[in-house]
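Minutes, methods subgroup
Present: GH (chair), OT, SY

1. OT presented the first of two proteins processed in the latest run. Sequence and structure tokens recorded below as shown on screen.
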Amino acid sequence: MSSDHPSIWEQRRFWDWHWEHWQERRTINDWKDKRHDTMLTMLSELRLVHSKLLDLGCGPGRYTEKLTRFGQVTGIDLSEQAINVARSRYPGITFVAGSLYELPLPREYFDVVVSQEVIDHVEDQVAFLDRAACVLKPGGYLVLSCANRFVMDRLGEGEFPPQPPAHITRCRSAREWKRLLGRRFQVLRIRSILPVVGQRGLLRFTNWPRLNAAFALLIGEERVTALKEWSGLGYTLIVLARKVPTTDGRRGR
């Protein structure tokens, strides 16, 4: 791991603090509900039956609980604070506190791995994806949500608050995710949602309120939003990928 990154202990302390102060940090909000609803729709289209799902970075379990409609769910998170809350609220779900890189998770056991707004905040994204591939059955699905680098690079001043040093942030574009995931996965779909932030470059025009209002009068607000999402201008990217065999014919590990 790079020495430029905070230690696991520092990250754990940050995320404990984050979940202790979730209300003032607006951890639960309409954007995250929209993200999760989109992911649930993707999962519904897979027609999963009695599946085993792993929620990587589950936090206090609010969204983990909604995954139980697809089967048996396990949630893991670095923050013991978040896991204690999750266990108290959802006793029917297995929750585990610890580092993804160190926990003894079963190999080729899960049908689906879900991870929401986590991979942007880990020190080794390649190792993260390798661990996800390791625990997935051959042909199993990975569903990620993450910030869109195209948008994050064009944020206006003050659009997002500054974060503490222990808060790792490394965003990627859709093209970068395709390349990185291609080592272990077949990317089936990448969708952008929430085209609501960004005030520099192209986004200065696409997010200009008067321009959006004019187009909304012509074609409707929902269609304006859909066109911006289709163009990849959403703040959040949602990726659906499938574990594939290795190139020498063996199953991916």
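2. SY then presented the second protein from the same run.
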Amino acid sequence: MKVVILAAGYATRLYPLTENMPKCLLSVGGQTILEQICGKIDRLKNVEELIIVTNAKFFDQLNHWKNKSRVNTQIINDGTLSNETRLGAIGDLGLALKQNAIDSDILLLASDNLFDQELTDFIAFAEQKKDAPTIAIYDIRDPQLAAKKFGVIEKEASGKVLNIEEKPEKPRTSFIGMGVYYFPKNTLELIREYLGQKNVQDAPGHYVRWLMGKTQIFSFLFSGIWYDIGDLKALDEANQIFHQKS
């Protein structure tokens, strides 16, 4: 299994903190976001390589950081320099697949998500599904909190995904996507197929919804604490909570 972390965004909602620093290197609870994520990756078995996709603006900073990783780590530069020219999440994943000729299962992570549950149970569940992708979900309890903000998932008790809506105005459930995905190697060609279409939408939620027409998808419910570090308020709240835990 290879792990891909997407870290090529420009985090404009966190300016001025992220004008000259990637969001994943911001400190939360005494550690950078990236260090907290990689701590969980370090505790997984059978990780062949960690691939972090960033942009030209932050490439040098992340290339310097990779010396701290305990896992064999590669930093990929997607060549962009601004929010307007970014490739988007699925575009960056496609770049990683092409540049590294990846032919193994992939654990895909967003670089701005903080959670306290380990990844081991998620991987064990995903591996049992063999040929079906698995997405991590979180219950925010109130569907309206997801309105126009998160990808919303409808599922069966078994975890099988029935429907996905990307940032709906009127969410039908309180289950939201966390930005954690497991793609078996036999599904990677579908990423290339998706990117080969015209006017594709770059958010992972749009891709996973498209993927539902090609294969079954399962969901795994995370518990505990979860933060999407999207703005200064979320960063401040997460900082307070993770300081209390440390």
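Chair's summary of item 2: The mean pLDDT is 90.
Next meeting: continue with the remaining queue.
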